[in-house]
Structure formats: structure tokens, C-alpha cells
Fold:
Amino acid sequence: MKLPRQISERIAFGLITLAAVVVILPILYIIGYIVVQGAGAVTWNFLTEMPRDGMKTGGLLPAILGTLLLTVGTAVIAVPIGVGGAIYLSEYAKDNAGTRAIRIAIINLAGIPSVVYGLFGLGLFVIFLNFGTSILAGSLTLGIMTLPVIISTAEEALRAVPQSFRLVSTSLGGTRWQTVRRVVLPQALPGIITGIILGIERAAGETAPILFTAVAFFLPRLPSSVFDQTMALPYHLYVISTQVPGMPIRIQYGTALVLLLFILSMNLLATLIRRHYRRQRVW
Structure:
């Protein structure tokens, strides 16, 4: 027997709501637990001091700075190449077997485990190019790992811009590059920013790639060059949770909370920027 449309809609809406609750509640519980366990450890000294006494006291300054440097380095490398590649695939490349193969390769690269990228970076940047275990090698590795996400999301954002925008610009005498730069890119910017932040957030929270290419267990000083090693929050959290006997639990959860706040602050900044440009869209 066929159910009335209103009943079917209510059932579907109820199932969707239930699915959303099932997904959201565990996430909220995990975040709340980390906040409760780690809030007592997060003080100004915890954020601005060097670690001491086998990292059982002191702060996270080297790890915070190292994470920031690696994140900025990843963005500098991945964003121009990723957005440029997306523009080429969306606006210039012909739809043929070659471009279809490139798109399939990008999708496959997005699914490769991060430890594989770490081994690749170790072989190419650390050993072959002789960059050593450094911020530069780690940023390059994370940049390559981030590229597939940025390219695929940026290309989808560019393709979502109505074709009529391009036709109007061309009919008014605009070149293809002028059309892309002044018409298509501004309209696709919210989606492009979303892809960039998704990629950069993944890079900021990764441990395996930087384990092989950039980070150290402990450093007594801050890095002064892109060829120096660094500490980073994800690896620091792994170390104090598994390799340091007698580590206070509040320090572990405090470190996890700082990493969580770092990523959430990136999300908030991206949301504000995306909202600003979304208001300027004309469709």
C-alpha cells in the first residue's frame, strides 16, 4: 500500500534527523570530553613557554609555532598550484581522454594514506634533494598531499558558476583570462576557500607525513630557518601520549584541546571569509 505523500515526507525527515543526531552527538561528546579534561591545563604559560622536565612541565610554544609554520608553508605551496590546476582543468583543458585520466588520478591521489606521502617525501625531499628533515621538506610533502583536495573542490566550484556569466563577458570583448579573473573566480571564491581550508586542516592535523620529513621528538630552541627541524602539535601529542612515562593526563588533553582550537579557529576564519564573498555573489 502506498503511503500518502505527507506521511512519507515526515518519515524521511525523521530518518534524516535521526541520522544527523547519531553523527553529531558522538562528536559533541568527544569535543566536550576533551574540553573538560584539558581546559585546566591551558594557561598563558602553557601556550608561551618551552617544554621542560621531559615535556612534563612547561608549555607548547615550539609545537604551536611549528604547526603554524608547516600550515603556512603548506598553503604557500599547495594553494597557487591547486587553484591554478583547477582553473586549467575547468576553463582551458579540452574534455578528452588525457584530462579524464588526470581527474581520475587526482581522485585516486586524494585517497592515498598519508603515511605513503610521508615515505614519498622522505625519499624525494629529505634524501634525494638533500633538504634533510626540515620545515621545507615537511611543507612540500604536506603540500603534495593537500593538492588533490584543493584541485577537485576548486574545479567543482568553478564549474558551478553559470555558463551565461562567461558568455556575457566574452560577448562584451573580454578575453578568456579576463573572464576567469574578473567574473568566474570571484563567483567561485566561496567554494574555492572551502576546499583550501579542508585541505589545510587535514595537513595541520597529520602526523605520519611530518614524522618522516619535518619533526623532532624534542627541540630546546625555536627553528630559525626553513631547513631546521621543528616540533608540531600532532606529533607532540603522539609522543607525550605514548612515549613519555608518567605524563600527566591533563597535559595530554590540554595539548589535544590546543590542537582542536587551532583547527577550529581556521574553520571560523574560513567561514567568515566565505560568508563575506558569498554575500557579494550575484546568483
